[in-house]
Design goal:
The protein is α+β, with helices and mostly antiparallel strands and 144 residues long. Helix content is 31%, strand content 29%. The relative contact order is 0.19.
């Protein structure tokens, strides 16, 4: 009986602990266009919200097509990572959303130039539509 009570007390104590959670925000990435944070750090893990190919200074898409938007997306991701003290090398997982799967090869060429060694686990898929009719959106998770 004592053992059960101790286990229950331990579980209750774990549930009552607060989570170390920090909102990450930087002017070097586009401001949120809805109720979300650019990034959230929990412990040593950073969750970066989906980024699109918008230049944070102009709030407009960069000129060009999928290659240019992919470069800008990764620059925006880098800005959020750096604001939290992380780098692309610490990205362990990414999700790539494309408005057209036919852009996969062009996106992959740019993406691969940023993640050369030990690239993160990744999913890439076509979606019906992205915010502001972006060609691409990428979200990442980084761990220190």
């Amino acid at each position: 009986m004592k053992r059960v009570i101790l286990v229950l007390a331990g579980l209750i104590g774990c549930a009552a602990q607060s989570v170390d959670r920090e909102v990450i925000s930087t002017p070097n990435a586009p401001a949120a266009i809805a109720p979300y944070s650019q990034g959230i750090r929990v412990g040593n893990t950073l969750y970066v919200s989906g980024q699109i190919g918008v230049d944070p200074a102009t709030r407009e898409f960069v000129a060009g097509g999928i290659a240019e938007q992919t470069h800008q997306v990764i620059k925006n991701i880098q800005a959020v990572l750096e604001a939290a003290g992380y780098s692309l090398e610490e990205v362990v997982q990414s999700q790539v959303f494309l408005s057209d799967i036919n852009n996969y090869a062009a996106m992959n060429e740019v993406y691969g130039s940023y993640f050369k060694n030990a690239p993160p686990a990744r999913a890439a898929l076509q979606v019906a539509r992205l915010p502001k009719d972006a060609l691409i959106e990428i979200l990442v998770v980084a761990v220190k």
